[in-house]
C-alpha cells in the first residue's frame, strides 16, 4: 500500500470551540499517538484527508510543520452523522516492519448454483500484516458452490505475509437454499399478523411540574 503524504499543523487550542474554528478553515482536528509517545495534537487539510481516508487502512505519512514526520494508520474517524464530513481523526503511529492488526474487506466473485442464497456472514476479517503491506481486502470465489457449502476463515487465501487474527473456524460465507415465493409471502403475512396482535402502548401521563 502506497503512503499518502499529508502536511499537518500543530495545534494548541482544544475544546469544541477550537474544533469548530479548525473545521471552518476546512481543516480536520486530529491526534497522533502510539509507541509510548505523548499525544501530538494536529490539524489536517480537509480535502486531502477526505481523499486519503476513502481508502480503508490508508497508510499516512504525516509531516508536522516545523516538527517530525510520522507514519500512521487511521484508528478512529468521526464523521458528522448528517452531512458526513470528517469531524476528528485518531491516528496511531506505526513503524516500518511492524506488524499491525487491521480489518480488511471480504469480496465475493463468481456465482453459486441456481436457487442458492449466498450469505456473507463476515463483511470483514481481522488480520495481522506488516504496516506498509496491508492488503486492500481478500477475494473469495463462490463459483459453482452447492447449497449447504460453507467457507470459513481458515479457507481464505491471504496475501503472503498476512495471517489471520481471528478464530480459523469463523464462518465467512454460508450458502443456503433460496426461499420460494410462497415462503416469502408466508413470512410477510406472519409479520403482519404479529403487528396486528401486538397490544397498543398505553399513553404515559406527564409528570406534574
From TrEMBL:
<protein>
    <recommendedName>
        <fullName>Large ribosomal subunit protein bL25</fullName>
    </recommendedName>
</protein>
<dbReference type="InterPro" id="IPR001021">
    <property type="entry name" value="Ribosomal_bL25_long"/>
</dbReference>
<dbReference type="InterPro" id="IPR029751">
    <property type="entry name" value="Ribosomal_L25_dom"/>
</dbReference>
<comment type="subunit">
    <text>Part of the 50S ribosomal subunit; part of the 5S rRNA/L5/L18/L25 subcomplex. Contacts the 5S rRNA. Binds to the 5S rRNA independently of L5 and L18.</text>
</comment>
<feature type="domain" description="Large ribosomal subunit protein bL25 L25">
    <location>
        <begin position="6"/>
        <end position="91"/>
    </location>
</feature>
<dbReference type="InterPro" id="IPR020056">
    <property type="entry name" value="Rbsml_bL25/Gln-tRNA_synth_N"/>
</dbReference>
<dbReference type="Pfam" id="PF01386">
    <property type="entry name" value="Ribosomal_L25p"/>
</dbReference>
<keyword id="KW-0689">Ribosomal protein</keyword>
<comment type="function">
    <text>This is one of the proteins that binds to the 5S RNA in the ribosome where it forms part of the central protuberance.</text>
</comment>
<dbReference type="InterPro" id="IPR020057">
    <property type="entry name" value="Ribosomal_bL25_b-dom"/>
</dbReference>
<keyword id="KW-0687">Ribonucleoprotein</keyword>
<feature type="domain" description="Large ribosomal subunit protein bL25 beta">
    <location>
        <begin position="99"/>
        <end position="177"/>
    </location>
</feature>
<dbReference type="Pfam" id="PF14693">
    <property type="entry name" value="Ribosomal_TL5_C"/>
</dbReference>
<comment type="similarity">
    <text>Belongs to the bacterial ribosomal protein bL25 family. CTC subfamily.</text>
</comment>
<dbReference type="InterPro" id="IPR020930">
    <property type="entry name" value="Ribosomal_uL5_bac-type"/>
</dbReference>
<dbReference type="GO" id="GO:0008097">
    <property type="term" value="F:5S rRNA binding"/>
</dbReference>
<dbReference type="GO" id="GO:0003735">
    <property type="term" value="F:structural constituent of ribosome"/>
</dbReference>
<dbReference type="InterPro" id="IPR011035">
    <property type="entry name" value="Ribosomal_bL25/Gln-tRNA_synth"/>
</dbReference>
<keyword id="KW-0694">RNA-binding</keyword>
<feature type="compositionally biased region" description="Low complexity">
    <location>
        <begin position="191"/>
        <end position="209"/>
    </location>
</feature>
<keyword id="KW-0699">rRNA-binding</keyword>
<dbReference type="InterPro" id="IPR037121">
    <property type="entry name" value="Ribosomal_bL25_C"/>
</dbReference>
<dbReference type="GO" id="GO:0006412">
    <property type="term" value="P:translation"/>
</dbReference>
<dbReference type="GO" id="GO:0022625">
    <property type="term" value="C:cytosolic large ribosomal subunit"/>
</dbReference>
<feature type="region of interest" description="Disordered">
    <location>
        <begin position="179"/>
        <end position="209"/>
    </location>
</feature>
